[in-house]
Design a protein that fits this description.
The complex is a heterodimer. Chain A has 4 helices and 3 strands; from the N terminus they run H-E-H-H-E-E-H. Chain A is of the alpha+beta class. In chain A, a hairpin with a 5-residue loop joins strand 2 and strand 3. Chain A is globular, with a radius of gyration of 15 Å. In chain A, 30% of the residues are buried. Chain B is an alpha+beta fold. The longest helix of chain B has 41 residues. Chain B has 5 domains: 69 residues, no CATH class; 193 residues, no CATH class; 208 residues, no CATH class; 174 residues, no CATH class; 193 residues, no CATH class. Chain B is built from 31 helices and 24 strands. In chain B, the strands form 4 sheets. In chain B, strands 15, 16, 17, 18, 19, 20, 21 and 22 form an 8-stranded mixed β-sheet that branches. A 6-stranded mixed barrel of chain B has the order 3-4-9-6-8-7. Chain B starts with a helix and ends with a helix. The chains are: A alpha+beta, B alpha+beta. Chains A and B meet through helix 3 and strand 3 of A and helix 1, helix 2 and helix 4 of B.
């Protein structure tokens, strides 16, 4: 299985996908590009990880999908946040902030 | 939650669409990526290749997406079930035998136990039935008795008023009464009950009220009746206005005061009471008995007494506590004049040693009679279940061995071990489910058929036995069979999944199958042993039945028709009844097809008899093993039944006079009471606790010994008196010797009786052959079931043996080929295989012999006219089994001998 360049903590990929979709609905490649842009290229999510995650999140009720047209006028499947997805993004972001603060504090101590 | 459920629904039922969608999505993704790449100036084809490389394999993504779908396990389950059904269908012989084996085990056991449970084990449908006990006295009774579970009314009173262990007691007496309602005449079973009956049982009503203390306070006081629910439903169509109306019982107007709760049919299960009457109405419900005297006589045991144990008192404690009370009552009774009149000092000593015994309240005579034979049948079915398990295990082992290569291949191409084990688990479950469904159907049918065999047609409708199999037993048997199929289906698979793949693929005969075959040999041995056991049992039971049928009662039973009639229940006086019988006798003698007519107050071959102690000049007080069997008969009785007079003469219509003036006795009676004398002219008398008796009855004739109550008995001592002597006429059993087939005139007889007197119903009309057949129903049930079981067991054992030998031969094909190539004669090869067959059969037979010899004592009481270790039956069963199994083994042996050495050697 092709792994992301940096090993993602469990739940990180989900959070990134949710965040990527927070501002606009995107298709698979769009999500991948947006994550790369958001993380300044640190994370390059490959299709092998992306699509299972998208489908899993859709089944969990966080995402909804629909067929639309891409910017290059091609048919593509778009994903959007659902209400539950927005709520999840909110709670997960807070949790992540708490963890990252704690981690940063822990790493600062000598 | 809802979205997950929707997803699950889509995943399971709209898989195809989801997959198509996914394909399109990934296609679109690849195109987007390649379009993006194309903008950087590379050719479209290269861009496309780049996109695919980026994606990292479309198939892999599809699989990963599928794996995260909700309910993926269900998906796989469906796949496994489909595959399981396909493999089972591909091997129909295996599947059918396995399913049939399962169905046989589950069905037979469930049906048999359901019958046992309903006929013998089930508790009464009353509150806390386990705290209800029957109070009885064991030991020497004196005076008259209605059976071992009965005591006298005064005894019941004494026990009820003085005990410390019961929260309450009641008593009851079963009777048959003539019911008259809206021009219909018939006889129905009824229960005479004391006032405390319903409250102590905790049985209520759906309509009206039960019998209150006030209803049962005075003799002949309150003509009231409570109906059973089922009787109310069937006879009165559930008419709610029935309460307050009157029905006629024995021509007495009785007011219906209530309808008992559903499911309650009295305390004697199997003999459902339809109406309940206060026991103070005894004189009305039992014509020709003096109600008041019955109640006061201490030498007359007739009521069955029940007690409800106080909380915290066990049956054993209660029994101990009641013993001193009984003893003080007995001491009082032993001093009463009626006791002194009919007993000696030695009798008194024995009498005072009588003990009180408490039986479970749900027991009764019918149950006691059926208990042993039914447990025996349950044990037989137990052996069948064991055998079915062995057969199933054998089949599954054979199959697992045959599939080693399949599993090895699947492992080699990447299937996980758990997946393979799960696959086998599913196949076992599939088999078990199919077997269980068939077994359930079989049990349902079998219980109905068993009931039909076991009970007469009219009783089967009455008997409250449901054909619904017992759930607990069904669960138990299914559990056992499931466990067997799981253990023997999975064990080899788990072991097999650990074997080296390459080894299995290269070589079929690895170490694992060698240990499998010895287990299978053992299982076949067990099957042969159990089959022998069942065949021996079948042989013994079938021959016992034949012995009973051949021995017969000692008189010709063909062309003999019998029925019972009781005009006294219609309120006919003694004079009217006497005249009724006289006219009936004349009327029937002129009926076409009737050769002669005989009357008897007691029935033949119905399992019971009138017995009474007799006294005479030379044998007063002499102890006898059993009191003689007595009856009052008409002049034509002996000629009609077909019993010759071997000395003296039979009764004639002129033998009228005081009661018991003349008697005809049988040889046993003569031997027992007048040894060494010519019995003709000897005198004896009937012991009577009501008045002093003297030996006034003169013997005028002697008949040979004939069976009386049933076909099993040694003919008892018998004495007959003319019926027209008696002033108390009750029911009479009529015997008709017919000149045509008795069945032909049954309808004509019914019609003739209806014209003769429309109010007096003909009861229990049947041919004597039917009567004999019915009296042998238990024996017939056991014989036919054990024969069926024995046959099936043999079939299963033969299949098992064939399977093992076929496998052994197939594995040794190469060896056989070499032997033949080196010059072994084909007969040598056959002998070699058959030696193994005979060792297998011999070991099984030896084990079976030991088992059968050890268990023989358990069935001794069910046999007739042969020993439980009858050598002929044992050897016969062994020969049948050896022949059947031997020929099953001969087929693979023959195949081994025809092996072509060149092909055999060329085989892998």
């Amino acid at each position: 299985m092709p792994a992301p360049q940096t090993d993602l903590l469990q739940g990180t990929l989900d959070l990134l996908i949710l965040k990527a979709l927070a501002f606009q609905d995107l298709h698979g490649m769009g999500i991948s590009r947006r994550i790369a842009q958001m993380t300044s290229g640190t994370f390059d999510v490959k299709a092998g990880s992306l699509f299972p995650a998208l489908h899993r999140m859709e089944q969990a009720g966080w995402l909804a999908s629909f067929w639309g047209e891409s910017e290059t006028n091609r048919r593509a499947k778009f994903y959007a946040l659902t209400k539950a997805g927005k709520k999840h993004l909110h709670t997960e972001s807070e949790r992540w902030n708490r963890i990252s603060l704690a981690m940063a504090a822990a790493l600062r101590t000598t | 939650m809802i979205s997950r459920l929707r997803a699950l629904w889509n995943n399971v039922f709209r898989r195809k669409q989801l997959d198509r969608d996914l394909d399109e999505e990934l296609q679109a993704y690849v195109e987007l990526v390649s379009a993006e790449k194309a903008q950087t100036g590379v050719g479209p084809e290269e861009a496309h290749r780049y996109a695919l490389r980026q994606a990292g394999g479309i198939d892999h993504i599809v699989q990963s997406v599928r794996d995260v779908r909700a309910g993926v396990w269900m998906d796989r389950l469906v796949q496994d079930v489909r595959y399981g059904v396909r493999t089972l269908a591909k091997n129909p012989a295996f599947s059918l035998v396995a399913i049939a084996t399962l169905a046989l085990g589950i069905g037979a056991n469930t049906a048999m136990f359901s019958l046992l449970d309903q006929v013998v084990l089930r508790l009464l449908p009353v509150s806390y039935p386990e705290r209800l006990v029957i109070v009885r006295e064991t030991g020497n009774h004196y005076g008259n008795s209605y059976g071992p579970n009965t005591i006298s009314w005064p005894m019941f009173d004494d026990l009820r008023d003085n005990n410390q262990v019961f929260s309450g007691m009641f008593c009851r007496f079963p009777v048959t009464v003539a019911l008259g309602y809206a021009d219909r005449a018939e006889q129905i079973p009824a229960e005479l009950v004391s006032a405390s009956y319903f409250p102590i049982l905790g049985v209520g009503t759906v309509l009206g009220r039960t019998i209150a203390p006030d209803d049962d306070a005075e003799p002949d006081g309150k003509p009231v009746v409570v109906l059973s629910y089922s009787f109310w439903q069937t006879y009165f169509n559930g008419d709610r206005s029935i309460v307050g109306r009157t029905i006629a019982l024995n021509s007495h107007a009785m007011t219906v005061i209530g309808v008992a709760q559903p499911g309650f049919d009295g305390v004697e299960m199997g003999v459902p009471a339809k109406v309940f009457v206060p026991i103070m109405m005894n004189a009305e419900m039992r014509p020709r008995t003096d109600g008041l005297k019955d109640r006061q006589r201490r030498a007359f045991s007739w009521v069955t007494a029940y007690g409800r144990l106080k909380p915290g008192v066990s049956r054993e404690q209660a029994q101990l506590s009641l013993q001193p009370l009984l003893h003080s009552i007995l001491e009082f009774e032993a001093l009463q004049p009626e006791f002194l009149r009919i007993s000696t000092a030695a009798d008194r000593q024995l009498f005072l040693r009588n003990r009180v015994e408490l039986l479970p309240g749900s027991d009764n005579g019918v149950r006691e009679y059926m208990r042993r034979p039914l447990w025996l049948l349950v044990a037989l079915t137990g052996a069948v279940v064991l055998l079915a398990c062995a057969n199933l295990a054998n089949l599954l082992l054979a199959r697992a061995t045959a599939r080693e290569r399949e599993f090895a291949v699947r492992l080699a191409i990447g299937a996980s071990r758990t997946r393979i084990v799960r696959q086998l688990l599913i196949e076992s479950l599939l088999l078990s489910t199919a077997g269980a469904v068939m077994g359930l159907a079989l049990a349902f049918l079998a219980v109905r058929v068993l009931l039909r065999i076991y009970l007469p047609a009219d009783a089967a409708a009455e008997f409250v036995v449901s054909p619904i199999p017992d759930g607990r037993v069904l669960a138990f048997t299914m559990g056992v069979m499931l466990l067997t199929s799981l253990v023997f289906g999975l064990l080899p698979a788990i072991r097999g999944s650990r074997t080296e793949i390459t080894l299995s693929l290269k070589d079929r005969s690895n170490a694992f199958s060698a240990s499998g075959i010895s287990l299978r040999r053992m299982l076949v041995g067990i099957q042969v042993a159990l089959s022998l056991l069942l065949l021996v049992g079948a042989g013994l039971f079938v021959r016992s039945l034949r012995n009973l049928e051949n021995s017969g009662p000692g008189f010709p039973t063909d062309h003999l028709l019998t029925f019972t009639i009781d005009p006294s229940l219609n309120g006919y006086s003694d004079e009217q009844t006497k005249s009724f019988y006289e006219r009936l006798n004349v009327n029937l003698q002129t009926m076409p097809g009737v050769a002669s007519v005989g009357f008897s107050s007691m029935p033949l071959l119905k399992g019971y008899a009138w017995q009474n102690a007799v006294l005479g000049k030379d044998f007063e007080g002499a102890p006898v093993e059993e009191q003689p069997v007595l009856s009052q008969v008409g002049p034509g009785y002996f000629a009609t039944v077909g019993i010759p007079i071997i000395a003296g003469r039979a009764f004639t219509a002129q033998d009228v006079g005081p009661v018991y003036r003349y008697a005809v006795i049988n040889e046993s009676f003569a031997r027992q009471y007048f040894p060494g004398h010519n019995p003709i002219g000897q005198r004896f008398g009937l012991v009577n606790d009501m008045q002093p008796t003297s030996p006034d009855t003169e013997v005028i004739g002697v008949i040979p010994d004939r069976k009386y109550r049933n076909l099993r008995e040694r003919p008892p001592a018998q004495a007959y008196f003319p019926y027209f002597d008696d002033s108390h006429f009750r029911f009479m059993n009529i015997y008709l010797r017919t000149s045509v087939a008795p069945r032909q005139i049954e309808d004509a007889l019914r019609e003739r009786m209806r014209q003769f007197d429309p109010h007096v119903p003909v009861v229990d009309l049947k041919t004597m052959d039917e009567q004999v057949g019915f009296s042998l129903r238990t024996e017939r049930l056991i014989a036919s079931l054990s024969a069926v079981f024995g046959g099936l067991a043999t079939l299963l054992a033969v299949i098992g043996l064939y399977g093992v030998m076929a496998y052994v031969v197939a594995r040794r094909t190469r060896e056989m080929g070499i032997r033949i190539a080196l010059g072994a004669a084909r007969s040598n090869v056959i002998a070699m295989v058959m030696r193994e067959v005979f060792i297998l059969i011999g070991a099984g037979l030896a084990a079976g012999f030991l088992l059968a010899l050890a268990l023989a004592d358990l069935i001794r009481s069910q046999l007739f006219g042969l020993n439980a270790r009858d050598p002929f039956t044992f050897i016969g069963a062994a020969i049948v089994l050896a022949l059947a199994a031997g020929s099953a083994g001969f087929i693979p042996a023959l195949r081994a001998s025809t092996v072509d050495p060149t092909t055999a050697l060329r085989q892998e």
